Amino acid sequence: MRPAGMRQFVTFFFRPRGRIGRTEYFLGAAFIHAVNLAIVSFALNHPEIESIGIALLWSIALPSLAGVLVVMAKRCHDIGLPGSFVLLAIVPGVGILWEIALVFIPGSAGPNRYGTVPLLGPD
């Protein structure tokens, strides 16, 4: 296995077609949340750069939100649900539970209308 390039990285986080398994979903969502946590922590610990910190937060927040929603949509596709189920993520209280549930719900064992079995197989 060789490392992924920038094209695969962008496709994974910003192209909502296809399916991903539970492991890929977990790692992708964890990566985005870790980056967001690091940026928020940096901004909170350096109040002297308030305006730059806020600009940095917004410049990262919107693409990371899109990335999380795309990864969630791909995971919904693996389960056999339409990508619009990501809208559950914006419902207060339900959103975090839905994001966690996607880690545990097994995907379709065979091909479904969203594509073939993910590269790592159903897990």
Q: What's this, in brief?
A:
The protein has 123 residues and is an all-alpha fold. The chain is built from 4 helices and no strands.
Structure commentary:
The protein has 123 residues and is mainly α. It is built from four helices and no strands. Helix 2 runs antiparallel to helix 3. The two termini are 19 Å apart.
Strand segment tally:
0
Tally of alpha and pi helices: 4
Q: Averaging pLDDT over every residue, what do you get?
A: 84
Indicate the low-confidence ranges by residue numbers.
none
Q: Largest beta sheet, briefly?
A: none
- Helix and strand run: HHHH
Strand content: under 5%
- As a whole number of angstroms, the C-alpha radius of gyration is 16 Å
Structural class: mainly alpha
- Overall outline: globular
Give me the secondary-structure topology.
Blueprint: H1 6-14, H2 22-45, H3 50-79, H4 94-104
Q: Which features would summarize this protein structure in a list?
A:
mainly alpha, 123 residues, 4 helices, 0% strand
